[in-house]
Amino acid sequence: QESIYNLLPRLEEKPVKPPRYISTFRPSVKREAQENKAQCKTMGPAKVAVPSPKNFLQKHSKEPKLPARQKEQDKKLPSLSVPRRTDRPVMGIQSKKNFINANAVAAITRLPKKPQPIYVDRRQGDKYLLETSGLVPKYIKKKDFGRTPKYVTKRNEEERRAQEEYEASILETLKKRAMKRLSDEERTSLLQGLRRNWKEVYHEFQRLPVQIDTIPKKLNKEKLETQMKQLEHDIEVIEKHKVIYIADE
């Protein structure tokens, strides 16, 4: 039956949890773990010797130290070409050369020193070296002066070779496109063929009806007349000119 209590939401009953599973081998596993456990395995020994207060950490004691310097062995000094400070000159030996007279003779007989060539830009201007000014013709004294450089000769040779190849290709192209002359036999056979074609077109033109009243008949008549005129023009041109050239396409 319908009741107001059935319309109210009912609270859901909480499910009852089953008891937690406990293995039957739990005591034996605990016993084996206790038997196989090593003493001081992770935390170290229970008692450690305390360092002496005399061995305290000193400053710069952990920095790397260089090895002890060894004493250098006595090295032999190289023989010197100049006299030492302790050496004494040999006394009693004098040179017989008269240096004063020798110097005077050398100064008298010596050639005068040539002045360095210079140039002046104006009358009361500054002086400049002549060699670096570009006014001295020192380049004409070279061995290869006036000769064509090698790179210019090589470039001219390459240009000449390229021009010759280009001209040869042009001549080859012109030879391929050269006009061919018709022989007398070909000219005669061509005339005969044109006349034969003209006769065929003329016979077909004669077979046309007398009364041409439709468009197709008119078009056919105009076509035959055009062909006859073209054949007559070709025959006249070939008969007029005995020498005929044909261009190769």
TrEMBL record:
Q: Which domain of life is it from?
A: Eukaryota
Give me the Gene Ontology terms describing cellular component: acrosomal vesicle; axonemal microtubule
Q: What is its main location?
A: other
Region annotated Disordered sits at: 39-88
Bias kind Basic and acidic residues: ranges? 60-77
Q: Where is the Enkurin domain positioned along the sequence?
A: 154-246
Respond yes or no to whether keyword Disulfide bond is given for this record.
no
Q: Name one GO molecular function term.
A: calmodulin binding
Q: Where in the cell is it found?
A: Cell projection, Cilium; Cytoplasm, Cytoskeleton
Q: Which Pfam families does the record cross-reference, listed alphabetically?
A: Enkurin
Q: Which UniProt keywords apply?
A: Cell projection, Cytoplasm, Cytoskeleton
Q: Which PANTHER family match?
A: ENKURIN, ENKURIN-RELATED
Name of this chain's protein: Enkurin
